[in-house]
Amino acid sequence: MSHQVTVMTRQGCSACVTAEQDVERICAELGVEWGVADVDSDPEWRAEYGDRVPVILVDGDEHGYWKVEEDRLRRVLRDS
Q1: Separation CA 25–CA 21 (nearest Å)
Q2: 3-class SS at 39?
Q3: What angle do CA 47, 52, 54 make, to 5 degrees?
Q4: Tens digit of each residue's pLDDT (9 = 90 or more) over 19-66
Q5: How confident is the model at residue 17 (pLDDT cuts 50, 70, 90)?
Q6: Cβ contact 12:42 at 8 Å
Q7: What distance in Å separates the CA atoms of residue 77 and residue 41, rounded to the nearest whole number?
Q8: Residue 29's CATH number
Q9: How many separate domains does the chain show?
Q10: CB count in 10 Å sphere of residue 39
């Protein structure tokens, strides 16, 4: 099964930049597609994720927030 990872971010968030770099590296190594979405571009996203950015979604489901838990992310992307 192939996965899709999304990093929910916002402008000016240094933790978001770090999370994007981590996700980019991990996904490149594992051949997994990934992307970025700005929480402030959608009122529902802002309400859901705005106080916890960066938020990592795997296949649309929340996987974690504030930082990338690399071992945990690798496990979920390999195991399914």
Answers
A1: 6
A2: helix
A3: 110
A4: 999 999 999 999 999 999 999 999 999 999 999 999 999 999 999 999
A5: very high
A6: no
A7: 27
A8: 3.40.30.10
A9: 1
A10: 24
- What CA–CA distances, in Å, run from 58 to 12, 21, 28, 79? 23, 16, 15, 13
pTM (two decimals) = 0.93
Show the tokens assigned to 55. 């938020």
Task: Tell me the three state secondary structure of residue 77.
Answer: helix
The answer, yes or no, to whether the previous bond of 43 is cis (omega within 30 of 0) is no
Domain that holds residue 52: 4-79
**56 residue type, one letter:** I
Q: List the structure tokens of 54.
A: 């960066």
Alpha helices in 8-59 (DSSP H): 14-30, 43-49
